[in-house]
Every structure is written in structure tokens, then in C-alpha cells.
Design brief:
The complex is a heterodimer of chains A (353) and B (310).
Chain A (H helix, E strand, L loop, with lengths): L1 H5 L15 H20 L4 H23 L2 H35 L5 H5 L15 H32 L2 H15 L3 H15 L6 H26 L2 H9 L4 H12 L1 H16 L3 H6 L18 H11 L4 H31 L7
Chain B lengths: L6 H38 L10 E2 L6 E2 L2 H32 L2 H14 L4 H27 L15 H25 L3 H9 L4 H30 L2 H6 L18 H8 L5 H39 L1
Antiparallel strand pairs in B: 1-2
Helix pairs in contact in B: 1-10, 2-3, 2-5, 2-7, 3-5, 4-5, 5-7, 6-7, 7-10, 9-10
The chains are: A mainly alpha (353), B mainly alpha (310).
């Protein structure tokens, strides 16, 4: 390649091409111009100069390329730059989300914060912590897991191992549809059945019921995918030895796919841990430690974030606590996600041999 | 082959089938109980439930309607889709066809993780970080496009349907990107190589072989994202400063969405107020059911086709 650029005449086969560094040059140029324009015009928002730079970059690379390389290549370059711009436009706010949460969250996040409740702390005062919220989250999510894992795994076993005909089709379709139920609707359902009709009070368990409605479809889907990966030869070998089908499923099929199932369950837990809306409707939230999930309102981490923000009256101390709780929540979910991936890799079903 | 003849087999099959039926029962129960509570509220309602611009279930006479909520939900979701779909397709293309392979893998992984960030955190970030940043953009839109009426701005805080739409776009980006990426990855290599062999540029390859193949995947991914956006509660409740009227300008605070209205009004609701909120939740449930069902049908149809093509 370097030979071609060294020779003074352009190669007759390829036509003129822009050198490799041109993209970077155009990008740097448009960023600089965008920044200069917004500085000159006194624009305050970071969003504005980024958008100006993005437009300049796309237009610039089209213009220059059209001049040197021709229309087709110019279109190609425009598409490439648009794809890059799309990527940067989306990643910047998402990175800002993580960055701001980490930066503002570490201020009050320490051992004291994790081991104390808000019981004696007024909303506008500094101090206090999230112990009651962590306790509530763990209990509610734990109970939801206890409900949804057996139901979810058994449903998946039914679909993969037994499911033929109309019933299986209906279950598959409604599990898919159930995945998309808004969390607030799940909360409203538990509210209308458990609290308004059966007359039970607000409690952590009511929250668990709502969370399991959100969790079951996720568990079913992921377990189903994993069971389908188990090679049929294993089942046939076991059945041929005279092992009953239910023992085959329990002793051969499920152990083979256990890694994937655990991964799916962990991802489902990660998903429901951050749910606020159902907790808001049926668990209420409290500033005190309530270790009993079956009676009286409980707190949960997302609920805590919401209450600190909503009841703070603009006080800095409450915002600090909200950010710290958000950081704790994100950290918990990310760790679960990473663990899930580790388990998936470590226990991946050994197929294709 | 005789299937479930042994007692163990029969019990196990019963359990498994029972769980499957349980899922169906739950879905039916959700529809049934929401309808039951909603019918109580609508029985008390003196105004038309679908066209009234008011939410006053405790008044005498009780009057409430979902017109404002329907408008706000549709508008914010449409804004979210207009921003998120092209950008997600762009990122998916970036990951599968443009980025260096290792970078693409890392980015796909990070976006997977971002899909798990809870909506409450998006809400907190939205109201404390994004809203102040939107002021400049709002002023600019007002100066240059204010004459359309749609982008007219009264200099209030940027807690309007437009900001909500932008935030929703960010929230559904990871989901749409993930599904679209999976579809793009399944594009038959031969199609792309054939196009390259004919001298196509990379963009022409994408346009001629990747996008046509992925079209139904993009549509169904978008509808999954739309389902999320329609039902999103906490982030909207935190960012939007609600009011019960329809404002043609997207930049002025006001309006509401189904989910946001339920979360914001729930605490002070009386029994009839709760039932009225449940009635609006039922409408949301039906809408998301239709959107998700349509998305699944598109995916299912595509599976049959791709089997024939591969």
C-alpha cells in the first residue's frame, strides 16, 4: 500500500483516494469549529456544540470526499461518518450517566451509609443511610426469586420437553407478551387483587408478587433457550437405559444446562432489582427498618432513591443520598450481570463433540 | 412409545403443565381484575372516559378522561422512536460492520450492561443532569423553529414532553440496538461477499444486503422498544412537570403519560381515585399488549422466511 502513496501518479485502477488520516483530520477540524462557534455565540449547553460538530463532520467528509474521490465513495464516507456519529451521540450521554452517578455517588457512600437507616434523620438533614432499603430489596427480590424460579423453570421444561399442540403454543405466545408488561401494570394488578379485593395490607411480599410477574417470563425464555441446547442424544441415551422421563429431565437435562439457567435467573434478578413502580404502589416505603416482608410497608433501594429525590425539597444532602443509593444499586446490578456471564462461560453446555 | 404411565412421570408432567397453565391464568387474571376495578370507576364517571381533558375522580360529579394521557404517551414515545431507531440501527451497524472487531465486541458488551441500568437511575440523571443541559437546545429551537408552534418555548424549566422523549430514547437505545445487532449478525456472509465482489462500497453492501435482510428485525426491535417507552414510569414521573391539558408546543412543561399519571397521583388517591387510575392502567395494558403481540408476530413470521433462505 505504501508504494501506491509514494508514487506521484494516482493508480489508474483505484482512482484517487483520501489518505487514512483524513477522517481524523476532518473530525478534529469539525470539533474545533463546533466548539469555537458555540464559544463565540455564547452557547452554554454541551449538547449544542456537539451537534454542530456532528453536522460539520458529516457534511465535511461528504464534501471533501466528493471532490477527491467521486460521488459513490463520498456516499460511502458519509454513511461511515453517520454511523460513527450515531455511536458517539448515543455513547456520550450513556457514559455521562455512569460517570455522574459514580462521581456524585461516592460523596456519602461509606460504611456508615450502608449500615444505618433513615429512622431519626429528617429528609433535609445530612446523615442516615440505606440499610433498611438494602434489607427490603434483598427480601423482596429473594421472595420473588423463590416464586418465579420454580414456576419459570417448570414452564420451560413443559414447553421444551412436553409441549406439543395448542396449549404449548398459547403458553409460548403469552410468555412473550408477558415480557412486555409494563411494571406499573403488574403493580396495579397486585394492588387490585391482593390489596383491594383480598384486603391484605401493603407489605414487601405484595411487592414480591408484582416482581415475580415481571420475572417469570424472563426465566422461562432463558431456560427454554438453554434446554433447547441440550443435545438429543443425551436424552435418548438415558431413555434407552430405561430411565423414566422425569428422572431423565431432573438428572440429565437440567444438570447439563444448569449454567445457562443460573445465568438467566441472575439476569432476571438484576432486571427486577431496579423496579420502582410496583414497589411504589404495593410496598409504599418507610424510613424505618422493617425486617418482616409479610407485614407493613418496607423500603427498597429504587424506592429510596425516589423518596430522597421527591421529599427532599431540593436539599443537597438528600440528593447526595439519592446518588449514593443509585451508585449502590448500579454496582449491585452490574456485579450480578458480570457474575452471570462468568457462570455462563464456566458452565457452558458442552455440545458439538 | 407410551408417555406418562409411571406415577413419577404423571406427577412431573402435571407439575410442568400446571406451571404453563399458571402463566396463562396470571395473564387472564391481570386482564380480569383490572377490568373489574376499572368498570367500577367508569360506572361512577360522569364524563366520557376517552375524550375528557380532566382528571377529577373525587369531584362531584366525578369526571376523568384519558385524552391528555393518551396524547402525552403517544407524543413522548414518537419522539423517542424518531431519535432512537436510526441511532440504534447506526450503533448496530457500527458494532457488526464498521468498528474494529475487538472494539465492536467490547461495545456490544457495554451496551448489554447499559440495558440493565434501572429506570429510576435514568430518572435521577435525567432530572438533575439532562434537564439543565437541555436549556440551551430549547432556546435555540425556540429562536429558529418557534414560529411552527411546535417548538415554542416560554423559558420554563426544560421538564417537558420533548425532554421526556429524549430520555426515553436513551433508555430504549440499548434494547433496540441489542436485537438489531443480533439480526445484522445473521446476514448471510455470501450476500455481503457477492456485493463486495461486484465492487460495491461498504455502504452499498449495507444498503443492498444488510438492511433488506434486517428490515423485519429492525421493525420488531423498534416495537419492543416502543413497548418499553409506552410503559416507562419512574423516569417520566421524575422528569416531566405534569399538567392536565394538551399543549401543542413540545417544549413547554405540561401534559402527562399513563404510567407517569398513575405514579404521581397514586399517593393522594381515594378509593375511587385508585380505581380510576387502574382504569387508565388497563388502557396502557391493552396498548402494550397489542404492540408487543404485533412485534412477536413479525419475529415469528421472519423465522419461517429465514429458514427458507439460509
Amino acid at each position: 500500500m505504501s508504494n501506491a502513496t509514494l508514487s506521484s501518479k494516482p493508480s489508474s485502477l483505484r482512482g484517487a483516494t483520501l489518505p487514512g488520516w483524513s477522517t481524523w483530520a476532518i473530525a478534529a477540524g469539525s470539533a474545533a469549529v463546533g466548539y469555537a462557534v458555540s464559544a463565540a455565540a455564547g452557547l452554554h449547553s454541551d449538547i449544542q456544540w456537539a451537534l454542530i460538530a456532528a453536522v460539520l463532520f458529516v457534511a465535511g467528509s461528504y464534501g471533501i470526499s466528493a471532490k477527491v474521490e467521486g460521488r459513490r465513495q463520498a456516499k460511502d464516507r458519509t454513511a461511515t461518518s453517520m454511523v460513527w456519529v450515531a455511536f458517539l451521540l448515543a455513547v456520550t450521554p450513556l457514559a455521562s450517566l455512569i460517570w455522574e452517578t459514580a462521581k456524585r455517588g461516592v460523596k456519602v457512600l461509606d460504611g456508615y451509609f450502608l449500615t444505618h437507616s433513615m429512622g431519626v434523620v429528617a429528609d433535609a438533614e445530612p446523615g442516615g443511610g440505606i440499610y433498611h432499603a438494602i434489607l427490603g430489596t434483598l427480601e423482596q427480590v429473594g421472595l420473588a426469586t423463590l416464586i418465579s424460579v420454580p414456576v419459570g423453570v417448570l414452564t420451560a421444561v413443559y414447553l421444551v420437553e412436553y409441549g406439543r399442540g395448542r396449549l404449548a403454543q398459547a403458553v409460548t405466545f403469552f410468555v412473550d407478551v408477558m415480557t412486555g408488561i409494563p411494571s406499573i401494570v403488574a403493580g396495579l394488578f397486585v394492588l387490585s387483587l391482593w390489596i383491594l379485593i383480598l384486603g391484605m395490607g401493603e407489605s414487601g411480599f405484595a411487592g414480591s408478587l408484582a416482581l415475580s410477574i415481571l420475572m417469570i417470563p424472563v426465566v422461562v425464555r432463558s431456560t427454554e433457550e438453554m434446554l433447547k441446547l441440550v443435545p438429543n442424544e443425551l436424552r435418548e441415551a438415558s431413555l434407552a437405559l430405561g430411565v423414566p422421563k422425569w428422572r431423565t429431565i431432573l438428572k440429565v437435562v437440567l444438570p447439563t444446562s444448569i449454567g445457562g439457567i443460573v445465568t438467566g435467573v441472575m439476569l432476571a434478578i438484576a432486571r427486577v432489582t431496579g423496579e420502582t413502580a410496583p414497589v411504589l404502589l404495593v410496598v409504599w416505603g418507610t424510613d424505618f427498618i422493617n425486617a418482616n416482608p409479610f407485614q407493613d410497608p418496607q423500603e427498597s433501594l429504587p424506592m429510596y432513591i425516589y423518596l430522597q429525590w421527591a421529599n427532599s425539597g431540593g436539599s443537597g444532602a438528600a440528593y447526595d443520598r439519592a446518588w449514593a443509593a443509585a451508585l449502590t444499586l448500579i454496582a449491585f446490578i452490574m456485579i450480578l450481570n458480570l457474575l452471570a456471564r462468568v457462570v455462563a462461560r464456566w458452565k457452558a453446555p458442552k455440545t458439538g463433540r | 412409545m407410551r408417555g406418562a404411565t409411571r406415577p413419577g412421570d404423571r406427577i412431573f408432567l402435571g407439575l410442568a403443565r400446571g406451571s404453563g397453565i399458571f402463566v396463562l391464568v396470571v395473564m387472564a387474571a391481570i386482564a380480569a381484575f383490572l377490568t373489574y376495578r376499572a368498570s367500577k370507576a367508569i360506572g361512577e364517571n360522569e364524563a366520557n372516559f376517552f375524550t375528557t381533558f380532566e382528571w377529577n375522580p373525587t369531584g362531584v360529579p366525578a369526571e376523568f378522561g384519558i385524552a391528555v394521557l393518551a396524547f402525552g404517551t403517544v407524543v413522548s414515545s414518537v419522539i423517542a422512536m424518531v431519535i432512537a431507531v436510526p441511532v440504534s440501527v447506526g450503533i448496530a451497524l457500527f458494532i457488526t460492520h464498521y468498528a474494529p472487531r475487538r472494539l465492536g465486541g467490547t461495545i456490544a458488551y457495554v451496551i448489554d450492561l447499559l440495558a440493565a441500568v434501572p429506570s429510576i437511575v435514568y430518572g435521577l440523571w435525567g432530572v438533575l443532569v439532562l434537564v439543565p443541559q437541555m436549556d440551551g437546545l430549547y432556546g435555540w429551537l425556540d429562536d429558529h423553529l418557534g414560529w411552527t408552534g411546535v417548538f415554542d418555548w416560554d423559558e420554563g424549566p426544560a421538564r417537558s414532553l420533548f425532554t421526556v422523549g429524549v430520555l426515553l430514547a436513551l433508555m430504549i437505545l440499548p434494547i433496540i440496538t441489542n436485537v438489531t445487532r443480533e439480526v445484522f449478525r445473521q446476514v448471510p456472509r455470501m450476500h455481503e461477499e457477492a456485493a463486495l465482489a461486484l465492487g460495491a462500497t461498504r455502504w452499498e453492501v449495507v444498503r443492498m444486503s444488510v438492511l433488506p435482510f434486517g428490515r423485519s428485525g429492525i421493525i420488531s426491535a423498534s416495537m419492543l422498544g416502543l413497548g418499553r417507552a409506552l410503559g416507562e414510569t419512574m423516569a417520566v414521573a421524575m422528569v416531566l412537570s405534569p399538567s392536565f391539558d394538551i399543549n401543542l408546543s413540545l417544549l413547554n412543561a405540561g401534559g402527562g403519560t399513563f404510567a407517569q399519571n398513575i405514579a404521581s397521583k397514586f399517593n393522594e388517591a381515594t378509593p375511587i381515585g385508585r380505581d380510576a387510575l387502574i382504569a387508565s392502567g388497563l388502557v396502557l395494558f391493552v396498548i402494550t399488549l397489542l404492540v408487543n403481540g404485533a412485534a412477536r408476530l413479525i419475529i415469528a413470521r421472519r423465522k419461517e422466511y429465514s429458514g427458507a433462505n439460509a
